[in-house]
Amino acid sequence: NYSLYLAAQGRLEEAVEEAQLGQKLDPLSSIISAWAAIPFAAAGHDDRAIECLQHAISLNPNDWQPYLHLNDRYLQMSRIDDAMTASARAVELSGGASITLAMMAVTHILSGDTPRGREIRDELTSRSEITYVAPSFFASIHLAGGERDKALAYYKDAVRARDSWLILSSIRPDPIRPMGPEFDAVLAPVRGQ
């Protein structure tokens, strides 16, 4: 989705215009509505982002992706209880997709339930021994727990692995956005810097 690329590059006005165009061209697509929320959120329009996600859910209440992005929005707004509800729904509907489990771990850690967050992280670690789990998922979990060095190591792995989720690293919710010169240096190739 071109609007995500623009948002990740900091071209927020253009990103919002592209997101709106996508919604106009296909107003009945729950996926387009769900992903349109990211540029709106990156531009600081969390209410509009939540509207997009609620619309996506109304179009297809069994799609897990709007709930995943709703979790992000609620984390950004420090609405932890709402984030927990959205996260649980994303895990349920996705059948336990790795990204949804990672965000559930993040949400537990940010809610103060670090032991449960670590249990989920450990489940993902076991899963990664038999199938691919994006390194950036582990980086987000470690950022949520304040473990910047471990997060940085996972981001280095993510760059080497060409982790496709890295494109969104600059527009993640504040609690899990990799910020600081050490992260900027590692992620510069991905961010086009």
Structural class by SSE content: mainly alpha
Summarize the biggest pleated sheet. none
- Individual helix count: 11
Helix and strand string, N-terminal first?
HHHHHHHHHHH
Q: What overall geometry do the principal axes of the alpha carbons give?
A: globular
Structure at a glance:
This protein has helices spanning 2-8, 12-25, 30-42, 46-59, 65-76, 80-94, 98-111, 114-128, 135-144, 148-161, 181-191. The protein has 193 residues and is mostly helical.
Explain what this protein looks like in three dimensions:
The chain is mainly alpha-helical. α1 runs parallel beside α3, α6 runs antiparallel to α7 and α9 runs antiparallel to α10.
Descriptors for this entry?
193 residues, 11 helices, mainly alpha
